[in-house]
Please model this.
Amino acid sequence: MHKYSGNVIITKSVEFAVRIAKLYRYLTEQKHEYVMSKQLLRAGTSIGANAFEAVDGQSKADFISKMNIALKEANETMYWLTVHHRADILSDSEFESINKDAVEIKKILTSIVKNSKETNNF
Model:
């Protein structure tokens, strides 16, 4: 069994990164928006990368640090999604669909960080 199998944040962040990559392609090819969408791509795909690194953290402190970075990237992703929406680059339905996933990931990451800080388990 792969060590990432069944890990909710890993699964959700990879699925989210794929959605972000597809959204980036749509934004650049259909909407011809390149600068802000590149920021969205970077932040949205970084969530999972940091979660992956956290799983292999050298210590509990490293785990918490990497998960905190993933949480910050989730916040930044939500910011860029909001900007795209308010600038009428993303429609209401496009925004609501992907932002819902971002909010869910943020909640999971917040819980992981909080619980990791409160417990001595690693």
User: Anything to note?
Assistant: The mean pLDDT is 94. The helical segments are 8-29, 35-55, 60-86, 92-118. The chain has four helices and no strands. The radius of gyration is 15 Å.
